[in-house]
Amino acid sequence: MPDGCGSDKDCKLDRVCEANQCVWPQRPDSMGAGRPLAWSSPGDEAPPAGPPAQGMFRFDPRHRGRSPFLLPKQKPEVVWMVETPAPVTSSPTVSASGLVLGAGHHGKLFAVDLEGKPAWTFAAADMMWSTPAIAADGTVYVGSDDDNLYALEGKTGKMLWKYRVGTCQQTVGIGPEATRCDVDAGPTIGPDGALYTGGDGIYAINANGTLRWRFATGGHVGSSPALAADGTVYAGSQDNSIYAVGPDGKRQWEFRARDDVESSPAIEEDGTIYIGSDDNRLYALSPQGQMLWAFTTADDVRASPAIGRDGTVYVGSFDGLLYAIRRDGTLLWAFRTGDRIQSSALVDASGVILVGSQDDRLYAIEPDGKLRWSVELGGDVDSSPILAGDGTIFVGSDDGKMYALRAK
Ligand SMILES: [Ca+2]
Ligand SMILES: [Ca+2]
Ligand SMILES: [Ca+2]
């Protein structure tokens, strides 16, 4: 009786004990699905009617990287890991039914339970950099370098459909034509279930796998689109531009950075868009596409910014520093790690920041910039960590492992 329980205390995460079984409490809305592990924090805009907050890259369509949960005070330990033969750079995702999903460069999406026991795997024809997304109905979406966006049945991993992005003549392997149409971006799920991702442009794909619109760009889009409350879609491209695309798929504006934009945008409550570029800058743009300020670091900003509840923006740079930047674009503090930062930071409910570095460590940093703890893993931590309701942290590493860490 693995799920047997006498009280709610016997149940992991936020499950409750009913009839001696640990079950997910029903959500108070009409969705019918089990309660997600996280919603956007109180005071945020109402969450979109659908996906749980950790059901996609950066937790929700605004991409603020805010967790409603608390990071452990004490240094956590690895409680289990999933081993794969290739780096895991995408961010894990936790489903409302208690599956942890990871995707790796070995080309597979793997689903394990909250104790790391394998549930299913799905193999694509090429590497996966994409963070899996989970819709309210349990459908799992992930992209692959084989140029497809896949929709999978959440319980079994069975493929429901695939959508081929672009018309690249070579779909797999390396080289410009093999990579131009890669689906690297973790799909963003909109309130109506539409999926936003990138390839040889920005794509909006209906929940049934048909194309809603494609917005052509001059370069590959690896940036995961962010979706504003009014339906505007923002994404960066390797053509150096940041685009705003209307719900109709038409261009609203284009902002030119000075180098590739691999970072994914985050949208502040007032509509300000934050995004990094290989030109070493973090940009703050108005909803009309005007530059409010640019903060210059010493190397590429590929990570996606997180926005704290007080408006502080947190982003790492290839210069090895995690920056905390005030709303006006001035530096609050910088925290030095031992190598490049590609990982996008998470902000917990009390403002503590969690980020990985290529020095192989995962750092928890207090809101004042002081180190709380760090944990050494087996390789670069480019993956963006996520946090579950019981304080468990899930993160991938270049050593091929997806880790679960928990404090005693
Ligand atoms: Ca490809
Ligand atoms: Ca650069
Ligand atoms: Ca390293």
Description:
The protein is mainly β. The protein is built from 1 helix and 34 strands. A 4-stranded antiparallel beta sheet has the order 3-34-33-32, with no helix packed on it. The chain is globular, with a radius of gyration of 19 Å. The relative contact order is 0.14. About 7% of the residues have low confidence. One calcium ion binds next to loops.
Features:
single chain, 408 residues, mainly beta, 4-stranded antiparallel β-sheet, binds calcium ion
Per-chain topology:
Blueprint: E1 16-18, E2 21-23, E3 77-83, E4 93-94, E5 99-103, E6 108-113, E7 118-123, E8 133-134, E9 140-143, E10 148-152, E11 159-164, H1 176-179, E12 188-189, E13 195-198, E14 201-205, E15 211-216, E16 226-227, E17 233-236, E18 241-245, E19 251-256, E20 266-267, E21 273-276, E22 281-285, E23 291-296, E24 306-307, E25 313-316, E26 321-325, E27 331-336, E28 346-347, E29 353-356, E30 361-365, E31 371-376, E32 386-387, E33 393-396, E34 401-406
Antiparallel strand pairs: 1-2, 3-34, 4-5, 5-6, 6-7, 8-9, 9-10, 10-11, 12-13, 13-14, 14-15, 16-17, 17-18, 18-19, 20-21, 21-22, 22-23, 24-25, 25-26, 26-27, 28-29, 29-30, 30-31, 32-33, 33-34
The protein binds calcium ion (3 copies).
Residues 126, 145-147, 171-172, 178-179, 181-182 line the site of one calcium ion.
